[in-house]
Amino acid sequence: MLPCYVLLDLETTGGNATVDRITEIAAVRIENGSEVARWSTLVNPGVRIPPFIQSLTGISDAMVATAPAFEEVARQLLELLDGAVLVAHNVRFDHGFLVNELQRLERRLQVKTLCTVRLSRALYPQFKSHGLDALLARHGLQTLARHRAMGDVEVVQAWLEVARTELGHEALQRAAQQLLQGSASLPPQLETALHDIPDTPGVYLMYGEGTLPLYIGKSVTMRKRVLSHFQASARVAKEMRLVQEVRRVEWRETAGELGALLLESRLVKTIQPILNRRLRNEKQLVAWRLADAPVTRPLLELVRMDEVDGTGLAQLCGVYRSKRQALEALRELAQNHGLCPQALGLESGKGPCFASQIGQCKGVCAGRESPAVHHLRLQLAMQAQRLQAWPFTGRVALREHDPQSGRTDVHVFDQWCHLATVHDEADLEMALRARSDGAPLAFDLDTYRLLLKRLSGAAPGSVVTLPDSEPADSD
């Protein structure tokens, strides 16, 4: 099949390579079609083996109590793998455990891998299941040591011989070489061909068995970004879960990074995939609204961001995830700047506040400071947190063009809100007319921050002010 490879199988205390440990290793080294070495050993994991795993594998705590630790057998294992391709059934599982065990010893595993689950899919595409139990049943193979490391290695070894007999040496070799060069690092259950995913800007949606995506991401090079998820799975628990569950990948191309960011944000907020955290809809976001009049009490009002449109942003300061967080931040601000908690609404009552009595308030509540001066100091203290007013008189368009794909996107905004992404003048006119009803725009914090950053570095002429459209005809 390959000039030199090692058939390997591990038994472990669980399925998470970052926290679980190895309990047994088995390996058979093949060179030029002949077996040259065979080795297996129990491994003391240093932790208790869960009862379910003991029942499944037959490996008990007592059996591994006197076995060597992984660090004692690591050198022998690496010598066996030297110069060979690591071959295993669902190789990502075994490879991930070896990577983590060696990292604990401050060593690196540098070895090519080949997955026999993917090899079975390539050689026998007419079958749906390609697990070891399916191979045993399909090809009439037998073993008395299922879920023991050497027993499972021997099943894979026997299956490779069956495939060579049924399909021929050249077919087996060709399929193995193609996987080794192209997609051996991919999850074995992945149905989407990696080369089908364009390496262009866009958003990718990763699905498991269900109809809703597990994760939505964006990149200016989607294929590379999707592959990076799989490559990081041995080190990052979230990526490992994604790799274990992903079945297919869908994608939507954009003309650039801005379009990908906007589309990712909208899809995550709408669908709320289980593995997306950062961009999920947060309706509890709140901000402080500063009163115009210095004598207003309280000077600040807490408002919900989902009730604010873009026209009132200039009066808002700070964005917080909860009322509690907003109050804590305001108390700290008052203390740092000698502001009056009573005037800010943090305390009730009349006359001098407690902070004034201990010298932490400059005394607007006791007549020692004028309301106008206190109001000005409050404005200066909150200036860094103040949201910016929309810097245009109306709607604007930002154009993106991808010379590789030839795609052009025009993104339309008003009052920091994304109205539409269009591709030609007809779509643009339709988008403008759709927003001519005067309905309030829903503010989105992620879009605000994204657009604020993009506008600050925008080249002259890249932002086009759009004319107002006539109201849509009514029946």
Task: Give a quick precis of the structure.
This protein is of the alpha+beta class and 475 residues long.
Your description of this structure?
The chain has 17 helices and 15 strands. By secondary structure, the chain is α+β, with helices and mostly antiparallel strands. It folds into four domains: 4-182, Nucleotidyltransferase, domain 5 (2-Layer Sandwich), CATH 3.30.420; 194-271, GIY-YIG endonuclease, CATH 3.40.1440.10; 286-385, no CATH class; 396-465, no CATH class. Strands 3-2-1-4-5 form a five-stranded mixed sheet, sandwiched between helices. The longest helix is centred in the N-terminal third of the chain and has 19 residues, at 149-167. Mean pLDDT is 88; it is low at 470-475.
Helix proportion range: 25-40%
CATH architecture of the largest domain: 2-Layer Sandwich
Q: What is the CATH homology-level superfamily of the largest domain?
A: Ribonuclease H-like superfamily/Ribonuclease H
Overall morphology: elongated
Strand tally is 15
Whole-number count of domains:
4
Runs with pLDDT <50, length 5+? Answer: 470-475
Give the rounded overall mean pLDDT.
88
User: What class would the helix/strand composition place it in?
Assistant: alpha+beta
For the biggest β-sheet, the strand order reads 3-2-1-4-5
Q: Gap between N and C termini, in Å?
A: 72 Å
DSSP strand (E) fraction?
Answer: 15-25%
Annotated CATH topology of the largest domain: Nucleotidyltransferase, domain 5
